[in-house]
Specification:
Layout lengths: L1 H5 L3 H12 L11 H9 L2 E2 L2 E2 L9 H14 L10 E6 L5 E6 L4 E3 L3 E3 L3 H7 L8 H8 L8 E7 L24 E3 L4 H12 L8 E5 L14 E8 L13 H18 L3 H4 E7 L1 H8 L35 E3 L13 H14 L3
Parallel strand pairs: 6-12
Antiparallel strand pairs: 1-2, 3-4, 4-5, 7-10, 7-11, 8-9, 9-10
Helix pairs in contact: 2-3, 2-7
GO molecular function, one term: oxidoreductase activity
Subcellular location: Mitochondrion matrix
Organism: Chloropsis cyanopogon
């Protein structure tokens, strides 16, 4: 309704609608999807409202920059050290964390940017939490439609709508987000409907980015890396089938066939691919259900209700334990708002210890 009010072009409306459903098991026609669109355009980058950007060196460079800023101020970072559980004192307050190797790290406060499910259902004894709170966390909608495909190619994709330059250098559209299978909102709705019935979309929504077009150091000369953010894929396939290797490859082939229609020669240029379905995203990155936001961005899971009513202020039922990741207000996105807000609350409490 929002897009119909402001725009007439169906391809333009459908392209904008992708930001209303990105990361969500929802259709552009799903009530509340308009907020997800707002969430993706309400910010700014270097003073430009609604702008997005690439991170030089890849997204890992952002994590490294944060780590360097922290260590420069005296922080100690333990990498590849899985947390086993949160340590609690006799008074029920958080007193640190225990690592899987048996090491205990004592502290007066604990901030968790793991998902609410991992933080409260796996790292804490359930009897220490209110029953209604535990029930709420268990019932969070974490369905994800996302399959991420990372691709290495030996040449720049050549699109029919905007052919490559003779010198093979990236053109402006190569340095942007390219949306495919978005000629109409009905296409997006059909893709969602198929996944809702347990079937990967036969014509998936594809957001294609070529980071190496802006950051040549990501690939050897003449080659490129292509990032494909695709929807819709259910976490569990129809009939209870899992995402085995044949299913994973069959879906990736469908995605590549679609890209081939827009950029002939794409499939022949592929020299490697990495396919991450919703179960893969959960297993590798700890994303519940593969959900990139740690939980749906629907109106019943936002603002005062994120992650649960009465606990949207970053403090948890356990004194001294704070939630600071995407599962906290205001939700997902590479913006650091939840972490900054949680840190301010924790610092305020720390001064009164």
């Amino acid at each position: 309704q929002i897009l119909d009010h402001w725009f007439e072009s169906e391809p333009l409306k459908a392209t904008l609608a992708t930001d209303a459903v990105i990361g969500a098991m929802a259709s552009p026609h799903t009530p509340g999807s308009g907020y997800v669109l707002l969430h993706h355009v309400m910010g700014e980058l270097e003073g430009r409202r609604g702008a997005w950007g690439y991170v030089a060196g890849g997204m890992g460079a952002l994590s490294q920059a944060i780590a360097q800023a922290a260590t420069a101020r005296g922080a100690h970072i333990f990498a590849e050290k899985a947390v086993c559980h949160v340590l609690l004192g006799r008074d029920g307050k958080a007193r640190g964390v225990a690592l899987q190797d048996g090491t205990e790290v004592k502290s007066k406060l604990v901030l968790s940017n793991a998902s609410p499910q991992i933080t409260f259902l796996e790292l804490l004894p359930q009897e220490q939490l209110p029953k209604d709170f535990v029930q709420r966390i268990r019932q969070l909608d974490t369905r994800s439609p996302v399959t991420k495909i990372n691709v290495a190619v030996d040449r720049l994709p050549n699109f029919l709508a905007a052919p490559n330059a003779r010198d093979g250098q990236p053109l402006p559209h190569h340095q942007c987000s390219i949306h495919l299978n978005c000629e109409g909102t009905q296409l997006l709705h059909q893709a969602y409907t198929e996944a809702a019935h347990g079937h990967p979309s036969s014509r998936p929504m594809i957001e294609l980015c070529i980071p190496s077009a802006l950051d040549p150091g990501l690939a050897p000369p003449g080659c490129h890396v292509v990032s494909l953010f695709t929807q819709y894929t259910p976490a569990v396939l129809a009939g209870g089938r899992s995402w085995d290797e044949p299913a994973r490859n069959a879906y990736a082939d469908t995605v590549f066939d679609c890209i081939e229609d827009y950029a002939p020669g794409f499939k022949a240029s592929v020299i490697g691919r990495d396919i991450l379905t919703p179960p893969d995203l959960e297993r590798i990155f700890g994303l519940p259900g593969g959900n990139i936001f740690h939980g749906g961005m629907s109106l019943d899971q936002l603002y005062f209700a994120r992650p649960a009513p009465s606990y949207s202020g970053y403090r948890s039922p356990i004194p001294g334990l704070y939630l600071c990741g995407s599962g906290a207000h205001p939700g997902g996105g590479v913006m650091g708002a939840a972490g900054r807000n949680a840190a301010q609350v924790a610092i305020k409490d720390f001064r009164h210890l």
